[in-house]
C-alpha cells in the first residue's frame, strides 16, 4: 500500500476500535473519494469521510473528535452525552485489534462490581482430559429435524418427483415407491462465559472447555462478557489449543474486571446476527450470577433467551457448594426462566452436564424447590 494511503486506513481502524460500524467497502470508497477530491484541503478529506464512512447522527460529535485527533493531532475532547456505562460489543471476524498491554492488579475477586478494568490473560497447556469430551460432543447434543431431506427405504414421505422419473424410465412400471425424510442434525451450542473478577479462578478452564466445544461440535459459538461483550469463536477454531487461547486472550479486553451481566446479555440480543445464534440452540451461561444493583435488565435478557433457546442453562461455580441456594434477588428472579442451574465449579461436572443436554430433566425451579 502506498505510504500516503496509510493515514486514511489508520483513521478507519481508529473508528473500528471505538465501535463504529465500518465495512471494508466503505474504507475503499473513502480513499477513492479523497483521491477524486484532490484533496485540496483537510475539509475535503473530512467531507469524504462523512459521505463514505457515514457515522450515525448520535455519534457525529464523537466522529468529529476522532477526526481532529487523528489528522490534526488534537487531544480527544470529552464527548457530550457519551455514557461511560455503555456496553461495547467486540466481534472477532478477522479484524486485528490492538492488544491492551496495561495489566492492573486486583486485590480480590470475591465481590462483583460494575467498574470496568482492562487487562490481558495468558494460558498454559495442561492435561485435562477434554479430548474424550470433544469426540463425544457432536453426537451428544440434542437433535432437531432439518428442512433438508434424504433418501430412505422406509418411514418416509413419498418422493413424487423421483418416483415419476423412475416410472418414465421404466416404461410405466415401478417396483416400489421411493421415499424421502427430513434429516436430523445437532442443535447449536452457545457458550456465554463470564470473565469478571469474581470468576477469575474459573475462566481459564472455561476457555479450554470452549475450545474443545468449538472443535468437537458441528456448530458452536462462544462469547465472553464482563463489562463488554466479545465474540471469540473464530479464535477458538484454531486447532492448536495453546495458540487458540492466546488469540482469544488478546481479543478480550475486560479480563477480571467488573460485572454488567444484564446489559451485556441485552447487547448480545440487540445484534440480529448474534441473536440468531441463540434461536433453537442449547445456551449455557457460565457465570456465578452475581449482578450488582438492579437485576431488571438481567431478568429481561433471560426472559428473551428463554423464548429463543431450546434449552437455557446457568452453570455457576457457587452451585458446587452443598450449602448453595439460589437465594439472591437476581437468581430468584431468573430461576423460573432457567431449564438448568448446575454446578460449574469443575471441568468434570461441566463436561458431564453438556454431554447430557439431549436427555430431558426437570426445570431448575422444580429441582431447587425440592432441595430447599
Structure report:
This protein has 372 residues and is of the alpha/beta class. The protein folds into three domains: 3-82; 130-136 and 187-371, von Willebrand factor, type A domain (Rossmann fold, 3-Layer(aba) Sandwich), CATH 3.40.50; 145-185, no CATH class. The protein has 15 helices and ten strands. It has a seven-stranded mixed beta sheet. Helix 1 crosses helix 4 and helix 5 (130-140) packs parallel to helix 14. The longest helix has 14 residues, at 24-37. Residues 79-84 and 94-111 have low confidence and may be disordered.
Question: What labels would you give this structure?
Answer:
vWFA_dom_sf; 372 residues; 14% strand; VWA domain-containing protein; 41% helix; Uncharacterised_CoxE; three-stranded antiparallel β-sheet; Rossmann fold; 3 domains; UCP010256; 15 helices
User: Any low-confidence stretches, pLDDT <50, length ≥5?
Assistant: 79-84, 94-111
Largest beta-sheet details: 7 strands, mixed
Q: Give the class from helix and strand content and strand pairing.
A: alpha/beta
Categorize the overall geometry. Answer: globular
Q: β content, as a range?
A: 5-15%
Instruction: Write down the domain tally.
Output: 3
CATH superfamily of the largest domain: von Willebrand factor, type A domain
Classify the fold: give the CATH topology of the largest domain: Rossmann fold
CATH class of the largest domain: Alpha Beta
Count the DSSP helices.
Answer: 15
Amino acid at each position: 500500500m502506498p505510504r500516503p494511503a496509510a493515514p486514511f486506513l489508520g483513521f478507519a481502524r481508529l473508528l473500528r476500535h471505538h465501535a463504529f460500524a465500518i465495512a471494508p467497502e466503505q474504507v475503499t470508497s473513502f480513499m477513492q473519494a479523497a483521491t477524486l477530491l484532490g484533496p485540496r484541503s483537510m475539509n475535503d478529506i473530512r467531507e469524504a469521510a462523512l459521505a463514505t464512512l457515514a457515522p450515525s447522527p448520535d455519534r457525529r460529535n464523537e466522529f468529529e473528535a476522532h477526526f481532529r485527533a487523528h489528522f490534526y493531532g488534537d487531544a480527544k475532547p470529552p464527548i457530550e452525552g457519551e455514557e461511560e456505562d455503555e456496553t461495547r460489543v467486540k466481534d472477532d471476524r478477522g479484524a486485528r485489534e490492538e492488544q491492551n498491554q496495561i495489566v492492573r492488579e486486583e486485590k480480590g475477586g470475591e465481590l462483583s462490581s460494575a467498574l470496568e478494568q482492562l487487562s490481558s490473560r495468558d494460558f498454559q497447556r495442561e492435561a485435562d482430559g477434554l479430548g474424550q469430551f470433544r469426540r463425544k460432543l457432536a453426537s451428544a447434543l440434542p437433535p432437531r429435524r432439518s428442512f433438508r431431506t434424504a433418501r430412505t427405504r422406509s418411514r418416509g414421505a413419498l418422493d413424487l418427483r423421483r418416483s415419476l422419473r423412475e416410472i418414465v424410465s421404466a416404461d410405466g412400471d415401478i417396483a416400489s415407491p421411493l421415499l424421502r425424510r427430513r434429516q436430523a442434525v445437532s442443535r447449536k451450542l452457545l457458550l456465554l462465559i463470564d470473565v469478571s473478577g469474581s470468576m477469575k479462578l474459573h475462566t481459564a478452564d472455561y476457555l479450554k472447555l470452549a475450545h474443545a466445544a468449538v472443535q468437537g461440535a458441528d456448530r458452536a459459538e462462544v462469547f465472553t462478557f464482563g463489562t463488554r461483550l466479545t465474540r471469540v469463536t473464530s479464535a477458538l477454531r484454531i486447532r492448536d489449543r495453546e495458540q487458540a487461547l492466546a488469540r482469544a486472550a488478546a481479543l478480550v479486553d475486560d479480563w477480571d474486571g467488573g460485572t454488567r451481566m444484564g446489559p451485556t446479555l441485552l447487547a448480545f440480543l440487540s445484534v440480529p446476527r448474534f441473536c440468531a445464534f441463540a434461536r433453537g440452540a442449547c445456551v449455557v451461561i457460565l457465570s456465578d450470577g452475581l449482578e450488582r444493583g438492579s437485576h431488571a435488565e438481567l431478568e429481561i435478557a433471560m426472559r428473551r433467551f428463554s423464548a429463543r433457546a431450546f434449552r437455557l442453562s446457568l452453570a455457576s461455580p457457587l452451585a458446587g457448594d452443598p450449602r448453595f441456594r439460589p437465594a439472591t434477588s437476581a437468581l430468584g428472579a431468573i430461576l423460573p426462566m432457567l431449564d438448568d442451574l448446575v454446578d460449574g465449579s469443575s471441568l468434570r461436572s461441566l463436561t458431564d452436564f453438556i454431554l447430557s443436554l439431549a436427555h430431558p430433566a426437570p426445570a431448575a425451579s422444580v429441582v431447587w424447590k425440592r432441595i430447599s
